[in-house]
Amino acid sequence: MKYKICSAVFAVVLLSVLASAQTVTEESYLRAREVLDKSVAAYGGLSKLRSIENFTLKAVGATVQRNQSRKTFAADRTPYRIDIVADLKGNRFSQIVQGGYPGGFRYHNGFTVDKTDGMSWDMIRKVTVARPNTAPAAMRQRLRYIPQMMIFNALDRASRLRSLGKADFFGRPHNVVSYSNEDALEIALYFDSVTNLLTKFETLGTDPFMGDVVTEVIFSGYKNDGSHPIAIGRVTKVGGEMTEDLRYEQLAFNTNPGDDAFKAPAEMPAMRPAPTNIDPVTKLSDNVYTVLAGGYNVLFVGFKDFIFVMESPGNDNVSRQAIEAVKKTIPGKSIRYIAVTHHHDDHAGGLRRYIAEGATLIAAPGEKTFFEKVAKSRFTIDPDALTLNPQPLKMELLDGGKRVLTDGTTTVEIHDIGSGPHTEEMLVAYLPNEKIVFQGDLLNRPANADYPIANDTSVHFAKWLESKKLAVERIIPVHGTVTTMDEMRKAVADMK
Ligand SMILES: [Zn+2]
After folding, report:
1. 279/175 Cα distance (integer angstroms)
2. What global pTM score does this model have?
3. CA 423 – ligand 1 centroid, Å
4. What is the mean pLDDT of residues 265-273?
5. Ligand 1 centre distance from Cα of residue 361 (Å)
6. Residue 391: exposed, middle, or buried by beta-carbon count in 10 A (0-12, 13-18, 19+)?
7. Separation of 210 CA from ligand 1 center, angstroms?
8. How far is the CA of 313 from the centre of ligand 1 (A)?
């Protein structure tokens, strides 16, 4: 009853205030302001919110592998954990994450920032990298694990507040407001119209495969620690598909972490830097090259009448860079074929630009439906090459696990190495004249040429390679630098 009287008073006050709004912009702001103010009250009031000077978060759960699973359209789960300590007053921040990908890939790394200078480290390779001049906005994304931080953020940017009206979510009515953030995101906040607590936030962006896409970050519930409503977990969805599912093992405010919480682990040497200012195009032999675009290696081969490209990593922009280099290196020929090693977004995310170029996709049979869907995606926010120059998808599926391109002089064999720990189907290119194998994710090596670390996926690949008895001198990865057969054998042996 008390709530109803209170909200009736609110409504009368709001109506009279709205009547005095100068334009629809101010009216929208005032409606949003009312929603945000109610939420501030639900989180204990402004002074209670401002009393949060630091927090500790330990979250556990899973990465749900959207476009990184063994099969297309699947949602493999791999364990994930993140530990964050933030000192808001002292402008200090530290984070450690542990996770992985299907096929034995794992990462365990961290970073710490004090004011703007920071240090990141890799617990697996045991190396550090200095990170000077870290912009405060770079930390913003991490603060979004905590609903209270979103409320602060919206309050601090009040002139950007707008009302989006009402929407149902979780079967409950919500008031929705949006604001724009200093990291260039427009964020919609969904407040439960009964509790006035934040249920989720949304952003709109572009996904290289799907095009226009909504990212939803959902706070799955709250408990009360006697002083503050405390979020108990967070679920992330991209285009309606879950990508992360976290339970907050610990979220505590004002734990007053000591200086040690913001120090990098001692006795880790600095990582050897990768060479810079190198020519992105590497000539491997007459007509055979790689181009480094967006940090990925792309193979391209000039045949008598056409060009073959293998791998379209990243997104439309990475493919634009790669294609520019391809056309400059081999002028006067068109790209007739594009092949991708596998369907993961870091390997095929730039495919649509090759379709726009009129290239035919060479792919594994199990990827057909997936790439057909990718070719039909809608890109209105950030129109890509295929949107601006629509072309039908031309696809040739590997038949019998192998496809050979040759003009009598230059030869490329495309092989499916079969079901492995990373993917159900996996293509590699073998160039018999050059004794080169080009592969994605089967044996990665850092750009600074530090030793490669093998995993289950590398073991499977090494077995396939040895069984084929191909003459191979260089194994060129999409990620990182070249290895030899002996280096691969050593990496596999070291793993065992
Ligand atoms: Zn992959």
Report:
1. 53
2. 0.93
3. 7
4. 90
5. 18
6. middle
7. 18
8. 10
